[in-house]
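$ ./design --mode recover --in tokens.txt
reading tokens...
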């Protein structure tokens, strides 16, 4: 009795086990699988004896057994145990064979052992073996096997089964191979198989195996084409599928095209195959287009920041200089001519975004959720490269809110981003009312900060406030949010901007005593800051643990601003802020102070590097991005940010300095802002004149409904900012407006009631502040 060298199994026993298995799929197949498996064994940690036994016995189940792998494993185990093999060896072979029914990587049933993985790949690669194909074809029924026409019919059915069972399987095999070395072996074997199949189609008898050549020679001339030409067309479809997959992986389209079939597929015969390819890959093609556009944008942004394209700042400045010169020639104010050039530049960028937005809309429809063409959180965020006109003017944060969220690459949290908003709300047991009402509109890298905060790590929330202005109702939302984070455990740091108005005040003053003007402004700012801090305390901020300061008087901020100047170029400032040639040099210092105010809280004086979050409006995002850009140079953590919506102005007005419409509440225009100090009569009078999203007539309002969007209706915005109005109540109010059940007059009466109640409650809280709180406010404001 001879023993099979590879598996320690007598050859006679192997022959007996495979007695009922067809020759083309029996013992010779098992021995070929063993040879391939041993070839793949190199450098792979597994037991050669277990692999050899598994390869020889993995197909001993009778034809038609299901699942054949499990049946073969059972038969092999019974034989090996009866032959006296160790239980450990028997179990290992059983586990290896059990996985031969696996149909794809990562799918259920994947082999759990290294031997099973090699066996699966070796078994699939045998589909490409020429001996296996020759065996199958040699067993094709011929005219000499049975009488007349039936034998040819059986032969045709046999060949059709062959094409389905082996050829189609071979064409679709390569993407499923992942074991190292398998793909190269597939390419080598498939090239030989391709020649073999072509020879069958073309009848080149001298190049075929002898038993296959004998089969063809014994056929009538009309039946000599053993394999139909369809295999080649199937191969072309397979190559198209493979090409599409290569495109999905991001390969060069030109290189992919070179590997495509040289001639088109016959439309009349293979329309279904082509249609299936197109339909199955339609969504993926859109995704690919989306990724390519994003990649192009990132590259363009990097080149822009490197000054390597025609959009670099000095070229833009040349554009504006030319505009001013042309303006003088035609009798136009130079500054107006420059603004026109900036507007045209901004419009050009808007046109560029239209295509991205169309793709985003298409992706959203396909995926059932909002997806942006400018996906938030992209690597290589556009640190400071944004349209200069938007930031320099800063007049339309509400009208352009959605556009800015995309333009700044933010994580949106408005109504258009329900999933992202829910992801934020899930962090908190009792979310702040600004979040539940959608008044927190976006964030940047917020999850890492919140996770650190809730984990008890040292975190700081940073915000800025204008010292020399009275507070209005819209300010209360942001201040309340700061107090909320303070109660969650974050340290609160507030900077008072007392330097912003100094250049304009000096320019507009007739006094030659510049020092006197600056001194007066600082005194006024500190007195205003004292009353502002009292409002903070009444709204819910704990002044005892608050760090508040003036930008112009904190030495650490000034020193860091000077250091930042060495890392931020004038080109970056121009790109970010839209500086003009006639702007004062102070315009370059103010941004550095803003960035230093964000980062200085991480200096060693204030405890070193920590998690930091900036809470501000969208118009302040430029300073956040500048801070994130330079943070690494100084060993700071990149600050995250949370962006809140500004309250809608009671009436839209025109900024006399820019000629643009302003739609946010501003105390500089008293009729458009509802101050915390306004009494009930003044509150009622201002709200009664407020602009809404209602229709022209009552009948039209009843029929069509109004538009209660807080970015459109100032009354809806005013109610939304009230902490006493729940998110559900505000939602019901908006639904009643949209349905036409609620008229603007009734809505204004409701707004008056809730606002007067809020203001009266605020005044009661102010009157009840403790002496220690008053003293702390005086200390922080440095008032004299």
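writing sequence...
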């Amino acid at each position: 009795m001879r023993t099979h060298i590879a598996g320690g199994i007598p050859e006679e026993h192997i022959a007996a086990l495979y007695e009922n298995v067809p020759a083309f799929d029996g013992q010779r197949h098992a021995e070929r699988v063993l040879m391939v498996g041993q070839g793949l064994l190199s450098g792979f940690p597994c037991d050669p004896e277990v692999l050899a036994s598994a390869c020889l016995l993995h197909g001993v189940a009778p034809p038609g057994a299901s699942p054949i792998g499990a049946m073969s494993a059972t038969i092999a185990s019974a034989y090996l145990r009866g032959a006296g093999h160790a239980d450990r060896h028997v179990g290992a072979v059983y586990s290896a064979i059990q996985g031969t029914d696996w149909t794809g990587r990562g799918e259920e049933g994947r082999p759990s052992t290294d031997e099973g993985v090699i066996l699966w790949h070796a078994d699939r690669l045998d589909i490409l073996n020429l001996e296996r194909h020759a065996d199958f074809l040699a067993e094709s029924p011929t005219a000499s096997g049975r009488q007349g026409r039936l034998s040819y019919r059986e032969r045709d059915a046999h060949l059709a089964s062959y094409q389905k069972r082996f050829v189609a399987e071979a064409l679709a095999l390569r993407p499923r191979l992942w074991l190292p070395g398998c793909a190269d072996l597939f390419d080598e074997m498939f090239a030989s198989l391709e020649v073999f199949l072509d020879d069958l189609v073309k009848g080149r008898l001298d190049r075929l195996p002898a038993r296959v050549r004998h089969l063809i020679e014994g056929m009538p001339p009309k039946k000599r084409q053993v394999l139909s030409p369809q295999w080649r067309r199937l191969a072309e479809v397979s190559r198209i599928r493979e090409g599409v997959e290569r495109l999905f992986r991001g390969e060069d389209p030109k290189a992919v095209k070179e590997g495509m079939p040289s001639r088109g597929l016959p439309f009349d015969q293979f329309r279904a195959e082509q249609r299936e390819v197109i339909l199955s890959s339609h969504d993926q093609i859109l995704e690919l287009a989306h990724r390519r556009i994003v990649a192009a944008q990132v590259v363009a942004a990097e080149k822009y920041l490197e000054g390597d394209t025609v959009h670099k700042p000095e070229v833009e400045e040349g554009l504006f200089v030319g505009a001013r010169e042309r303006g003088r020639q035609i009798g136009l104010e130079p500054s107006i001519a420059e603004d026109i050039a900036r507007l045209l530049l901004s419009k050009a960028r808007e046109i560029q975004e239209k295509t991205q937005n169309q793709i985003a809309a298409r992706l959203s429809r396909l995926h059932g959720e909002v997806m942006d063409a400018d996906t938030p959180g992209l690597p290589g965020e556009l640190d400071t490269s944004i349209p200069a006109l938007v930031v320099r003017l800063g007049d339309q944060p509400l009208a352009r809110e959605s556009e800015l969220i995309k333009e700044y690459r933010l994580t949106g949290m408005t109504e258009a981003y329900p999933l992202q908003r829910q992801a934020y709300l899930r962090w908190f047991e009792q979310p702040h009312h600004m979040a539940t009402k959608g008044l927190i509109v976006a964030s940047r890298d917020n999850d890492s900060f919140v996770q650190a905060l809730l984990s008890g790590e040292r975190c700081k929330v940073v915000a800025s406030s204008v010292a020399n202005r009275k507070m209005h109702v819209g300010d209360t939302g942001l201040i309340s949010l700061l107090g909320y984070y303070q109660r969650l455990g974050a340290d609160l740091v507030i900077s008072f901007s007392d330097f912003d108005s100094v250049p304009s005040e000096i320019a507009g003053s007739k006094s030659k005593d510049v020092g006197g003007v600056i001194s007066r402004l600082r005194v006024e700012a500190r007195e205003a800051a004292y009353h502002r801090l009292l409002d903070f305390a009444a709204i819910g901020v704990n002044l005892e643990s608050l760090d508040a300061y003036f930008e112009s008087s904190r030495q650490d901020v000034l020193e860091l601003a000077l250091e930042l100047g060495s890392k931020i170029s004038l080109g970056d400032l121009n790109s970010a802020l839209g500086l003009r040639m006639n702007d004062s040099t102070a315009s370059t210092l103010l941004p550095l102070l803003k960035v230093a105010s964000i980062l200085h809280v991480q200096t060693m004086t204030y405890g070193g590097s920590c998690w930091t979050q900036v809470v501000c409006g969208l118009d302040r995002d430029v300073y956040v991005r500048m801070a994130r850009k330079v943070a690494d140079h100084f060993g700071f953590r990149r600050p995250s940010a949370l962006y809140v919506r500004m309250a809608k102005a009671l009436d839209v007005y025109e900024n006399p300095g820019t000629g643009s419409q302003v739609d946010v509440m501003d105390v500089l225009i008293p009729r458009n802002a509802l101050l915390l100090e306004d009494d009930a009569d003044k509150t009622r009078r201002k709200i009664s004149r407020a602009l809404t999203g209602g229709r022209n007539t009552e009948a039209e309002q009843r029929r069509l409904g109004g538009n209660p969007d807080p970015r459109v209706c100032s009354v809806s915005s005013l109610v939304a900012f009230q902490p006493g109005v729940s998110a559900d109540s505000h939602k019901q109010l908006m639904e009643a407006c949209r349905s036409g059940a609620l008229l603007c007059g009734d809505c204004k009466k409701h707004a008056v009631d809730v606002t007067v109640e809020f203001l009266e409650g605020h005044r009661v809280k102010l009157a009840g502040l403790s002496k220690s709180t008053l003293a702390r406010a005086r200390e922080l404001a440095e008032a004299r």
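exit 0
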